[in-house]
Amino acid sequence: MNRTSKTFFTALTSLALLFPGYSLAAIDIENGSGGIMESMLASDAETFSDAIQVGLKSGHYARLSSVKLRGLRAKTYGATVARFEYRYTKHGVEQVRVYHARSGRSVRDFIGKFDSGYKSSSDGEMAPAADEADILLDAQESIYYPADTATDIRVARLKPKPGSTIDAVHTGETTADGTNKIVHGADAELKILRRIEYDIEDNVVASGGRITGYVSKTVCASCEKAMEEFTRKFDVHGKVYHLNDGKAIGGVELPGDLAASQASSKMLAETRKDYVKSLINQDGATPRVRSWTEDASRMARLEAEEAVEGIANAAGCES
Ligand SMILES: [Zn+2]
Questions:
Q1: Model confidence, pTM
Q2: What are 68-83's pLDDT values in tens digits?
Q3: Ligand 1: centre distance to CA 311 (Å)
Q4: What pLDDT was estimated at residue 26?
Q5: d(Cα 287, Cα 266) in Å, to the nearest integer?
Q6: I want to staple 211 with a disulfide (CB 3.0 to 4.6 A). Which of 80, 219, 238, 240 is the partner?
Q7: How confident is residue 25, by pLDDT bands cut at 50, 70 and 90?
Q8: Residue 41 has pLDDT above 70, yes or no
Q9: Contact at 8 Å (CB) between 302 and 296?
Q10: 144 confidence band (pLDDT: 50, 70, 90)
């Protein structure tokens, strides 16, 4: 460390001492991009889409019209998926737990909105009773997803811990009569933070760890706030890479990381759309529920392939 940075660091440390509530650690949000991130999120998106098809085949729903089916498909490939790796040290050993989530409510509620015979528990309103019923449904639907393992968790919705600051905040939305409405209560990132909060408080994982997160869409202000609260409460820091789903404006040169992120966002959206179009169909097959291990080995293979490509590119090979 050179003299200038040392002085700077000392200044920061004294600031932290002056304001003990303030931690220097943070969960930084950055534009993510690249083949590995796209594949990782595509793989999780497939798993969550499979769950919708399993639900659709469960016999709970009347026949969906083609318009409704199109709506359901759009909602399926449009849902945000998030995958957070949480690295922590327990009994002197570094451990990792990977949390997988999609935005929104239970599969029953997710499909129900397109089924004329099904009375939705939500309609965008967040009545506490309806929310609790949906949380129960979501937990019962764990059979639609890969089984949880010690290292991989499908994050179901959970009730906020009493008095917890890890929660959705108002970001400007109002109802028709002008009252404030909180719309980010079932966001994928928030669900994950809440699950880690449960895990820390239940002593499943230790606090003070590091998050590496991947999100298929731009992180909203409500989730950003929840991350700040999470750092403050549990001294967790790290990085969350999101795909920037903003629309490129013609003729405007974007910074490289933003342009790359938007390109990856588009690529992922197309992959997901293709998958969902061939999958979500009442006459189609019920997909086999895969395991998180299959997913992990697939990722390892992709990473190996990408590394080889990297070496080839570095060696100046044309591909
Ligand atoms: Zn959000």
A1: 0.85
A2: 999 999 999 999 999 9
A3: 37
A4: 93
A5: 26
A6: 238
A7: low
A8: yes
A9: no
A10: very high
What separation in Å is there between the alpha carbon of 240 and the centre of ligand 1?
A: 12
74 CA distance to ligand 1 middle (Å): 19
CA dihedral 20, 160, 81, 256 (to 10 degrees): -20
Q: How far is the centre of ligand 1, averaged over its atoms, from the C-alpha of 206 (Å)?
A: 25
Measured in Å, residue 220 CA sits from the centre of ligand 1 at 4
What distance in angstroms lies between residue 171's CA and the mean position of ligand 1's atoms? 10
Q: What is the pLDDT of residues 203-247, one digit of tens each?
A: 999 999 999 999 999 999 999 999 999 999 999 999 999 999 987
- 314: CA distance to ligand 1 center in Å? 38
| Residue 254 region by backbone torsions, left for phi larger than 0, else alpha for psi between -120 and 50, else beta | beta
The CB-based long-range contact list for 33-38 (8 Å cut-off, 24+ gap) reads 33/243, 33/257, 33/260, 33/261, 33/263, 33/264, 34/260, 34/264, 35/302, 35/306, 36/299, 36/302, 36/303, 36/306, 37/214, 37/241, 37/243, 37/264, 38/264, 38/267, 38/268, 38/271
9 alpha carbon to ligand 1 midpoint, in Å?
A: 32
